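WARN no homologs supplied; continuing
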Amino acid sequence: MRGLPAPVQYSPATYWEQRARRFAAEGGGLAAVCSYGMPAFYNRAIHREQCRALAPWLAVPPGARVLDVGCGVGRWSCRLAARGALVTGVDLSPTMIAQARRRAQEAGVAARCRFRVADLAALDLSQHFDLVLGVTVLQHILDPRALAAAMRAMGAHLAPRGRMVLLEAAPVTLQARCDSSVFRARSRAHYLELARRCGLELESLGGVDPAPFRVQILPYLRRLPHVLAWSALALTTAASVPVNALLARRAVARSWHAVFVFRAGGSCAT
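OK structure emitted
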């Protein structure tokens, strides 16, 4: 696998900026925003699974106001803007934001996009949105106080009839061996409680990737010789693709990632 192990000391702004400088301009930028150090075929599979899982919730009408938190290189922002949405994308990394602007320009949707560097936990745009979207963002916020602040900030930017869509690693049964210094898989109940405390009401809970093969092999990849690790990853990815494509929406309880869809409700608890 490419890249280095996760850093011992995790400074989010530094980590994501360094990762963006290395990978954000490369192809679709998936190595910057999906799985660090993994081959292109793996990240393409991840991206397709996310596209399938999110598709029902990204069918926004023209003129919809969208906030894309942790927007990265703008893959969701550009897609939503192409549908006619007015998109605001925020990210910690200046290089990610520069790439998002470039890609929006190339896609011909720059007029419907604005991007800015911002910390989600302290976000205050003085604006409300019809859709607040976060894809694998909260799983990288390790500090509990920052996590709660990020959820409050997203809820505070939601219009009265707005919808919040989150895709996060949220298995029913936690497997701590998959955690790292930059990533934390939290239970679904944890996210549901965070949302409840922010006055958000669950509208839908969907699956993404119920096939267990990749989750089982990932913690051991770096211990294997390179060729063996690459072969094992290719085999488990190939086996996962049809299972996830066919069963993701029906096998929600077995899915490693989940799509949470919330509606605005009451006010946040402190």
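The mean pLDDT is 92.
OK
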